[in-house]
Design brief:
mainly beta, globular, two-stranded antiparallel ribbon
Length: 76
């Protein structure tokens, strides 16, 4: 049985940049993971971490072996 994979990445989005999601101008976040892979995921997945300053930090995303989203958490 295959195990889930984790992808770690840094993200620095201003509140103004994330506003594009609310305006319907953007649906996905695109960034580069620590291992060099370019990743894209629904912006809604990162919404819990939105503050007045935007979204800033180091994150770990868990995916199934079929690359289906499981969870995302902010690293310390």
């Amino acid at each position: 049985m295959a195990t889930n994979q984790t992808i770690r990445f840094q993200l620095h989005l201003s509140a103004e940049q994330y506003l594009k999601v609310y305006q319907g101008l953007a649906n996905n976040i695109i960034t580069v993971a620590d291992d060099g892979r370019r990743i894209a995921f629904p912006a809604q997945n990162i919404k819990p971490f939105l503050t007045h300053d935007g979204i800033n930090g180091y994150f770990e995303m868990e995916l199934t072996p079929a690359n289906k989203f499981v969870s995302i958490r902010k690293m310390a």
